[in-house]
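Slide 14.
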Amino acid sequence: MLKMGFNEGCTWDGNRGCADQSLMADLKACAKYGFKGIDIRFDCLDKYLAEGGTLEELNAFMKANDIVPLSYNALCFFNMKQTAEEKQAVMDELDDIIKKCAALDCHMVVVVPSCDLNEKGIEATRQEIRDDAVAVLKEMVKKCEPTGLKLSLEFCGAPSMSINTFDDAYEIVKLVDSPLMGVTLDQYHFNGMRSDWSKLEKADGDKIFVWHLNDTEDVPAGAGYNTDAKRLWPSDPRGCLDHKRFADTLKAIGYDFENGFITMEVFRPDYYEMTTDENIKTAAAETAKHIQRYCK
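Slide 15: predicted structure.
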């Protein structure tokens, strides 16, 4: 049966960031409520280290509580860089992430595409974006090969994102052509720009590295107001996603339903008002209920 994963976006505050959040508090609540994996946010990890915590202590706590660090979340805005300095900064950040992941026994980093093309006056075609992403990701894969760290490309379903559909993300992953390269499938993002179900139905389930669970209010594709704040717990009656279709499709294409993870990720201001314990308790109950209903 699928294992339950937790993404720190659930407790991270969209306005205050990690200011009121504790990585260790998240982990303790995850252990308390039965989560077996966690996506660790980069900014929450940075805060933990700045406050005197160590990677070794963090790793020891996770191992003692049978929690897997599913991913380092995330290396943001990796593509469409215009200067050598910008490109080198991405590779330098990856070098640092590789070291941190090795210390944490974490085997995956999520990579997020850039969203500032309009601000920079870059009017790139899909092909130009695809070519750039493939080139950058191939270089990143080479850096990851010595440790076997995997890269999971997370397309983001908004018009401003340079890679905003499953269709484009999966094509990029195929062109990179490495066992270390896969896709993050976030249900909210899949719906946001109305990704093509037929592309997912023909995909290789082994290339879906991360499955993010959530629901969303029913707003038009590409709407400027369709932000992460529209995300919902998957059982919320306001939601519009076809959960059965997601589960059935992923099972049909070979996603690992025996040992794999389904990871809750919501970013909703209402939920940030909950205590860490209340939030993660709710996330665990929602995830468990979802698995029982759709993923057995």
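Speaker note: The radius of gyration is 18 Å.
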